[in-house]
Every structure is written in structure tokens, then in C-alpha cells.
Amino acid sequence: MKATPVDFFVIGVARGGTTSLYNYLQQHPEVFLPGVKECNYFSKVESLDKEVYLDPEVGKEYHMKIIQSDVVYDELFLEAEASQKKGEVSPSYMWDESTAKRIYDYHKEAKLIVTLRNPIERAYSHYLMHYHTGYDKATSFEESLNSERNGVWGGGNMYLEMGLYHSQLKAYFDLFNRDQIKVIVTEEWTRNSAKSMDDIFNFLEVSAFEGDLSEETFNASKQIKNKGLLDVLRSDKIKKSLSKILPEKTREKIKEQLFYKEVPKQEMDSETYNRLKDYFKEDIKQTEELIGMDLSKKWNLS
């Protein structure tokens, strides 16, 4: 018997709070999300991390995989109850504009959630993440912006391009009814996540959440310590050996304790910020017209 389709998708954006959304949605008993936070099944993207291409093991949790098999994808949802809304969270679905048609062909009635973040802050956050994880060797944001473009999804440096939201969103608005798409603004919903999640649960047509959602900080800014040793452990050979004896969550906890420390938010150079305001100005205007929302005011970019 063919599996029932996934009911909703959080399609992005990267560094826009999708990890927090995944964790909040997971807490609702009427919602089912797979153990793979980012499935990347409908997008055609690549990663520099070879491990993400390996099929997920039953009972284990992963931050990211690139699922390429229909069977493997369906198996991720086998434990969902018939009464639960099935969903998944993959920011690459926003970036890869051909994904919209694939999801539409898969389930025309699917609901879509997208969280938009100030594209300048999003780009800077993305650079910091890739620098701290070793993907980006540039020692400053400005140096990275002047580097040769690398379009690989998992490890690339298309920080500015990923913040050009209009064409990415238009691919979905051209296919899906507007009432199937919920656009939220990262800076707003993260300030009042309880109310925002109530709105999202209502959008998904599940009951109001009873109790308090666990509101811990996900994907916080971190600074590396012991970077040399961390780079050694990131080698394919070492990673493969560790993956055989330790689950991903355990490896991540060990890395958090040994190699990272919480740091105050790092500020971007003001000259760079002002230059990027001009870079994104026209795209923000087009995105505002598409979704009917004053993003410039919300992001203080007027």
C-alpha cells in the first residue's frame, strides 16, 4: 500500500530558525517529524560531508541527510500515527527553486511554512556557522564575500544569494494557493515563540498545545576552542570510524563540550552592513509585494 503523503513542509530559510521550529513542532503529540531534521529529499543539492549520503539507521537521530530513495524517505514516517500530521523541515527546499514543482507533484494540498530572516543577518550568521564548522576558511565575513563562489548546499558560501528571497518564494506562490503558505518573520516569532507556535498549530489544523513548550536555544552562536584537534577529527577517515561507535547526537554533545564555547553575538562591520542594505533593497521590495508584508520595517532596513 502506498504511504500517505507528508502533510506539511518547513521549507526554509537556512539560519532562519528552522532548527527551533523542528524542535517545537516535535513536542506536539498530533505532529510527527522524522528523526532526520533535514531530509533534503525533494531538492537536488549536494554536500561536502560524505556521511549525509548514507541511509539513516533506524532509531538514530540526524541533523542532516540527503535522502535519495523513495523507500528510505517513506520509511522515515512509518511510526507516524494515522491521526498525526506528518511534516519535515529542509531549508534547501527554499534554495533549490525546482523543489516547489516536485513537492507540488507529490502533494498539491501540502501546507508550507517559511521563516524569513533579515537577509544581511542571515548571511552573516551562515558565514559564522561555516567558519566555526571548518567549511569556510576565510577569517572574516568580508574576505568570504570576496572569495570565489561555491554553490554546494552543504558547505558552500552562497551567503548573499540565499538571501534573495523573491524568486525562491515565487516558485511556490506560482504553484500553491496562498492559504497553503504561511510566512513568518524570524525576528518576530523567536521573540514570542509560544504565541507564534499557537498560530502555526492552528495553520496545521491541530489542537492548541497544552502545557509549555520547551524553549531552549538551538544553533546558538559559538566560538571554537582547540580548532586544530577539531579539524583532525573532521577528516573523513576519523569521522567514519567515530560514526561506527557513537551516534550522531552523542558525537555532537562531545564536540560541544570539548571544542565550543558560547560567545556574545559578533557584530558585522557597519560599512559592510550598509553596502548589503543596497544589495538586498530591490529583492526585499519584490518579496514584500509578493507576500503582502512590510519586511523593511520589520528588519529596520527602510
SSE inventory with pairings:
Layout lengths: L7 E5 L5 H9 L4 E2 L3 E3 L23 E3 L5 H6 L9 E5 L2 H4 L3 H8 L4 E6 L2 H14 L8 H5 L19 H9 L7 E5 H4 L3 H11 L18 E3 L2 H7 L2 H10 L2 H12 E3 L7 H22 L3 H4 L4
Parallel strand pairs: 1-5, 1-6, 2-5, 3-4, 6-7
Antiparallel strand pairs: 8-9
Helix pairs in contact: 7-13
Task: Describe the 3D structure.
The chain is α/β, with parallel strands linked by helices. The protein has a single domain, classed as 3-Layer(aba) Sandwich (Rossmann fold). The protein has a five-stranded parallel sheet with strand order 2-5-1-6-7, with helices on both faces. A two-stranded parallel ribbon has the order 3-4. A two-stranded antiparallel sheet has the order 8-9. Helix 7 runs parallel beside helix 13. The longest helix is centred in the last third of the chain and has 22 residues.
Give the biggest sheet. Answer: 5 strands, parallel
Strands side by side in the biggest sheet: 2-5-1-6-7
Q: Which structural class do the helices and strands define?
A: alpha/beta
Total count of strands:
9
- Helical amount: 40-55%
CATH overall fold name: Rossmann fold
Beta-strand percent range? 5-15%
Principal-axes shape call: globular
Order of helices and strands: EHEEEHEHHEHHHEHHEHHHEHH
Short characterization:
This protein has 302 residues and is an alpha/beta fold.
